[in-house]
Specification:
There is one protein chain. With 277 residues, this protein is an alpha+beta fold. The protein is built from nine helices and eight strands. The protein has a single domain, classed as q2cbj1_9rhob like domain (Jelly Rolls). Strands 1-6-4-8-3-2 form a six-stranded antiparallel sheet. It has a two-stranded antiparallel sheet with strand order 5-7. α1 crosses α4. The longest helix is centred in the first third of the chain and has 18 residues. The chain is globular. The chain binds 2-oxoglutaric acid (AKG). The site of 2-oxoglutaric acid (AKG) has 6 residues, from β7. The site of 2-oxoglutaric acid has 6 residues, from β7.
Amino acid sequence: MLESQLQTHLEAVAEDGFTILENVFSRERADAFAKRVREIERDTLQPLEPGEAEEDSSFLRTAGLLRIDPIFWDVPIDPTVTQVVEGVLGPDFLLSTFSGIDLKPNGNTIQPLHPDDALIPVSRPHERAIGCTVMWVVTEFNERTGGTRLLPGSHREPLDLLFSQDKARLSQAIQPDMKPGSVLVFDHATFHGASDNPSDEWRLGLQVSYHAGWVRPYTNWFRSVPIEEVREFPEKLRDLLGYKTYNGIGSANATPGSYRESYRGKGRPRPPRLSLD
Ligand SMILES: O=C(O)CCC(=O)C(=O)O
């Protein structure tokens, strides 16, 4: 991406809370993602709980994608997308969550508009972005299919809106038309939500969320992906899971011992990445 294009996207995130990157991935990849996610849904969907009806839920969520198929490995580390994410969050940002989100057809259970930082106990607006949520558009996203709704500028508003659900303000939400291959990137403080999907088709996205390197990710990757599998991942993906120090601070390996620290210069260089042995 050209530097000028990057700046335009970063200005849009700062001003409106979101931006849309077009033609990030091909229709063939979109079709491959859809095929694979639907297979996983078919093979792994958990049974309804007692008293739960199918119509109580609006979408199927597929977790564990990194463990299930290498076709998903390149998604969180996509260079075009991560360039924008790095511009928003700074260096050494981390992967926080990664899942498929498949909105049921003919649904009428609309997801309330919400920000993804609602549980982070830091007052809003944030001095700098804490997290960035990214939606890979796998099937058409628009009014007909229940595309993501966004409330422009709401990343600068207090959380009260979540509790008041002020109808006048929330009615200013927009629902952009996005083609498969597009990627929506937003400051996770922006109010957003899936819509209801009146169409006869499922609406699929891959939701990837990132946190700044100084905040812990929502997912504990050290427990959720066995180390033998992490070793197979591309280095950039391992970095995103936290197998790297933040901004060169801290110790990458758990070897106990003492060392000299110098106030002259930077001291002895330490490896930025954890050993996976
Ligand atoms: O699926 C969407 O359009 C948005 C989903 C969302 O905001 C969420 O799951 O928190």
